[in-house]
Design brief:
Radius of gyration of chain B: 25 Å
Helix content of chain A: over 70%
Strand content of chain B: under 5%
Shape of chain B: flat
Structural class of chain A: mainly alpha
Order of helices and strands of chain A: HHHHHHHHHHHHHHHHHHHHHHHH
Number of strands of chain B: 2
Oligomer: heterodimer
Number of helices of chain A: 24
Low-confidence stretches of chain A: none
Mean pLDDT of chain A: 85
Structural class of chain B: mainly alpha
Strand content of chain A: under 5%
Largest sheet of chain A: none
Distance between the termini of chain B: 71 Å
Number of domains of chain A: 1
Strand order of the largest sheet of chain B: 1-2
Mean pLDDT of chain B: 89
Order of helices and strands of chain B: EHHEHHHH
Distance between the termini of chain A: 37 Å
Radius of gyration of chain A: 21 Å
Number of strands of chain A: 0
Largest sheet of chain B: 2 strands, parallel
Number of helices of chain B: 6
Helix content of chain B: 55-70%
């Protein structure tokens, strides 16, 4: 694959001209990212008739902008109300929510926005420059290597349960068992499904996420009038633009952390099947491991927030590399994009960059422009978004339950998933009240099926 | 001698391990006659889980025997004065999930928000609560059903709107 560097400048300006598509897509992405169940992939599927009717270039810009901003949007409720919008933001509340509870929600949002946009922008540029070599990563990552990556993510279970490692391990392994529910990968034997046909495909992630985080959090938050302490409320009421600037400064000072974690996200994103969920946990874990102050993680430490946010935005460009170069989607959203591009007659693969470089490089250019626009348009919103936390729990808890439980219906459109969300809510509530970390259970649910899949493959290959 | 109230209540801490072991045993039962590919991962993970729970139970029993812990449920139901409110919210939530498939998204969401907010608000601010519930349900309808065309359960409200404005609604 040859580079066409002269193309980049004019293409950047050309893409910038589509600001009228990018800005509404960013706003839509922020909203759908913040609601569990409404991932970018789901929304693109829902808006497929609209996307297919668009010119292929505009359609791609729309999808890319939506994808990038939804990734960032998922971190907003994770920071403000301890409810990750997607699995990719599941590691964000570990340090983001404690910051909010102490009245530093605005600062945390600013940090998250800077880490997300800078991480996303950097990895997009890296993806543009190193595309052919990065594509090769997916060839070298076999089942055994993937097991090592996942074990690194799973080891986070012991880290986040530092107060009581035994409880943390029980929660994590319980999550791994729950994640093993469903038909086995070779003979499709149903396992642990409790007789429900709806569980043959395994445990759907969104109801687990909604229940463990949102529903249980709603039942816990009613124990106080507000999720903030009086001091926290005073801080939020008094805060002007200073908290946003301070948050941005804190993130910029940790530039090395942003670079390092976004590259982790990029590399994990390139591997088909791996995604933001794995990347954010791996990034959080390595960030804590190499930190000089690991004891501060989980208490509202900026690096604990920056690491997963930079990583999950690094994934976005990574997932598109195998799609464009090899025609293999790196994730769910990339798979939907593949459908749209094929419908429009775009031939994916190395020839795309020779035959239609404007489109091939244009996807990454759209991503770069989106992150640039987001950096300047979203950061000022931190001040207003953080005010949500001033809402009384009397109103907030029912809103959280209603809008997240219906979110668990969206991905598969099964009523069963709403009941499942409620069941996970009860498990999450009991777990939290008795000192078990729900994030440890979720890590197991996310990584369990993937670990089994790669483990089986590795065993078969060693036969 | 320490008073019984000073003892750490650990009864509630056993609920998750009990659920975990119960589920693991059930899981083993479902794969007992399955091919090895269906068993290997679960036996590996499940065995470790059972060992961890056994260690946890041993630790708890030793603490109880030492007199530093009791098997009371403790923190799980605290604060006790919110017990009825919490139960009310749980029943309302269960009702929401059951009723939504017949009454549709908008109507059920409005009713759920209204009743849940009234329970939490102890019947106060009826006007604000009613307005907020109706407004949010309508917002959800416009966003999810009209704009995104999701297949959220449709009921009398959605059918009425469709008859008024056509298929777009």
């Amino acid at each position: 694959m040859d580079f066409n560097l002269e193309l980049f400048g004019p293409l950047f300006l050309h893409t910038l001209g589509y600001w009228w598509v990018i800005i509404p897509s960013i706003l839509l992405g922020l909203v759908i990212g913040a609601i569990p169940g409404f991932s970018a992939a789901n929304t693109i599927i829902m808006l497929l008739p609209l996307t297919l009717a668009m010119d292929v270039e505009i359609g791609l810009i729309f999808m890319v902008a939506l994808y990038c901003s939804s990734r960032m949007g998922a971190g907003v409720p994770a920071i403000l109300v301890n409810i990750p919008g997607t699995a990719g933001a599941a590691a964000t509340p570990l340090d983001g929510y404690p910051m909010t509870r102490s009245g530093r929600g605005q600062q945390a949002l600013a940090m998250s926005f800077v880490a997300s946009t800078a991480g996303g922008l950097l990895t997009t540029v890296l993806a543009l420059l190193a595309m052919p070599w990065l594509a090769e990563v997916s060839f070298y990552m076999h089942s055994v290597e993937m097991i090592v990556v996942m074990l690194f993510g799973i080891s986070l279970i012991a880290t986040i349960a530092a107060k009581d490692t035994l409880k943390g391990l029980i929660a994590g392994f319980f999550g791994l068992m729950i994640g093993s529910i469903g038909a086995d990968h070779v003979y499709a034997t149903p396992r642990g499904t409790l007789g429900f046909l709806e569980l043959y495909d395994g445990i759907p992630l969104i109801p687990a996420l909604v229940g463990l985080f949102a529903v249980s959090e709603a039942f816990l938050m009613i124990e106080g009038e507000s999720i903030l302490s009086q001091h926290g409320k005073d801080l939020i009421r008094r805060s002007g633009w200073a908290a946003t600037i301070e948050g941005a400064k804190i993130a910029v000072k940790r530039w090395w952390h942003i670079i390092w974690n976004s590259i982790i996200g990029l590399v994990i994103g390139v591997i088909p099947g791996a995604g933001a969920g794995i990347a954010s946990f791996v990034a959080y874990q390595q960030s804590r491991t190499y930190s000089k102050t690991p004891e501060l993680y989980g208490t509202g430490h900026p690096e604990g927030l920056i690491a997963p946010e930079a990583a999950n935005n690094g994934v976005t460009s990574g997932t598109l590399i195998p799609l464009l170069i090899l025609g293999i989607p790196g994730g769910a959203t990339a798979a939907v994009m593949l459908v749209v591009m094929q419908y429009q007659g775009v031939v994916l693969g190395p020839s795309l960059f020779a035959d239609n470089p404007e489109l091939g490089y244009g996807v990454f250019m759209a991503m770069a422009v989106t992150y640039l626009i987001m950096m300047f348009t979203i950061l000022p919103l931190a001040r207003y978004m953080s005010r949500v936390t001033l809402l009384s729990t009397v109103y907030m808890a029912p809103i959280v339950i209603a809008f997240t439980l219906v979110g668990s219906f969206v991905p598969r459109e099964y009523m069963f998933d709403m009941y499942l969300g409620l069941a996970f809510g009860i498990i999450g509530y009991v777990a939290r009240k008795t000192g078990y970390h729900v994030a440890a259970i979720l890590i197991g649910v996310i990584l369990g099926p993937l670990l089994e899949q790669y483990f089986l493959r590795a065993l078969k290959m060693s036969d | 001698m320490s008073k019984p109230l000073d003892k750490k209540a650990v009864g509630g801490d056993l609920l998750i391990p009990a659920a975990a072991v119960g589920f693991t045993i059930y899981y083993f039962w479902t794969i007992w006659d399955s091919p090895w590919t269906a068993q290997v991962n679960a036996f590996l993970v499940g065995t470790i889980l059972i060992i961890l729970v056994a260690i946890f139970i041993t630790r708890t029993v030793l603490a109880v025997r030492r007199g530093s812990a009791s098997l009371r449920i403790g923190n799980l139901l605290a604060p006790r004065e919110l017990l009825l409110t919490r139960l009310g919210l749980l029943i309302t939530t269960l009702g929401y999930v059951i009723v939504i498939q017949w009454a549709g998204f908008t109507l059920t969401t409005c009713l759920f928000l209204l009743s849940a907010m009234l329970i939490l608000n102890r019947g106060r601010n009826l006007g604000i609560v009613a307005l907020l519930s109706a407004g949010l349900a309508l917002f959800g309808y416009l966003l999810f059903i009209v704009s995104f065309d999701t297949r959220f359960p449709r009921g009398p409200f959605e059918q009425f709107m469709q008859s008024l404005f056509g298929n777009g609604f």
